[in-house]
Amino acid sequence: MQQMTQIITNLLTSDNDVIKKATADLQEAYKHPETVPALCEIAVSAPEPQVRQYSAVLLKKHLAKLRQWNKVPVEQQQIIKQGMLNALMQEQQKSVRKAIAQFVGVLVRHEAKKSDSWMSEVLKFIYSYCSSADPKQSELGSSTFAILADAAPDQFLQHMESVCEMFTAALVATEATGNMATPVIFNILTGMTYLVPFTLGHNTAEQTLQKSIPLIVKSLQAFAVQPEVDQFVHAFDILESMADLNAKLLNNHIKMLLEFCLEAASNAQLDSAVRIKAVAYVGWLVRLKKKLIIKQKLIEPIIRVVFNLMATEPEDEDDDEEYFLGEDNSNPMTTATQTMDLLALSVPPEKLIPPLLQLLEPALQGQDPLPRRAAYLSMAVIAEGCSEAICNKYLETMLNIVKVGITDPIPLVRNAAFFALGQFSEHLQPDITKFAPQILPILFEFLHQLCNELRVS
């Protein structure tokens, strides 16, 4: 074991020559059956956390393939499985625990088809620790659950009902404390995200998960106001996973989900990453559940919030051009514009255009250039999805509005109007061509003025 410890210590140095020799020594050591037990002993007993962690990492890499695990004698396999499970409970260093848990994930995958009780012991450990009143134990249980769900999600397939019950119980228990933005909730949301596709066909599990959505939303509301915005972004993945992989789970809670997203998107006090996630998910829900949304009369509130977000100040001077250039540097304004585009592609024009026009009129008449820009952007992005309705009923009206916009003195408004004209030219053929005699003189006059300005400057 001492020789193996020295190899690991050498692998952790910054000297390339030492690392190269240690790597060769490690490959030679792997040829000997005593190496795996030595690594396990180091992972649980070495004084230095770095050495314990790296030993667990090496075990995970070396035994990742089933054929390597099968080379280990059955008696040693039993000792390793039990030893690593015990190490999870006893290890104090978070980085080491994570490495051991990832190795346990490999073992879970390899041992799934065996009839011994080890998998039941792993689940018992997770369930009991997740429900523990001791914060350290509950965090350990939940982090282990998240890591194992990532490493071997299919191995939870036979246990989906009990896993969903554990998930809901943790949410309920944490809600009672008054603070849902905890490491435990973050971990179980993360773990459950990996397992959402495996709930398909498990009616009881689906029902349990569906009933937990109000508590999921409540926890996301708590994470949304925390300083570490990445936690919200990752925790939100569970709603995206449901929408993408088992959308029927959302059916009973569409109104609640939309209200949460619209409120978050509208809240200028929240981090941009939160608002981007929220308004993008609105578009996702509209695409998937438009009939339910229309039935519940939620289209108009969506249009109002999305338009208002399109009328916000760009986060920096370059952001204003991103939508026109097709750059993928998301901010709340550009994401809202993409959501308006999705609305036009998903919602019947008669449900979208009239309420949108009610917002455009005061925006175009006002002195603030941002709502004016939003008005032209809105007309631009609905051109594709609502092309037939626009050509039949609104084309001349919209063109007259755009003709005013391309001579607007404010560049950001003028750019949006030109963008709208370009979208009309692309998506409203051949109807738009008959208006060329009205549009071209205005374009030529503007280009003439622009050339004069360039000469002067």
TrEMBL record:
Domain Importin N-terminal, first and last residues per copy: 22-90
Key words, A-Z: Cytoplasm, Nucleus, Protein transport, Repeat, Transport
InterPro entries: ARM-like (IPR011989), ARM-type_fold (IPR016024), HEAT (IPR000357), Importin-beta_N (IPR001494), Importin_beta (IPR040122), TPR_IPO4/5 (IPR057672)
Any one GO biological process: protein import into nucleus
Localization per record: Cytoplasm; Nucleus
Example of a GO MF term: small GTPase binding
Short name of any one Pfam family annotated for the protein: TPR_IPO5
PROSITE patterns associated with the record: IMPORTIN_B_NT
Superkingdom of origin organism: Eukaryota
Name of protein: Importin-4
Source organism of the structure: Bactrocera latifrons (Malaysian fruit fly)
Gene: IPO4_4
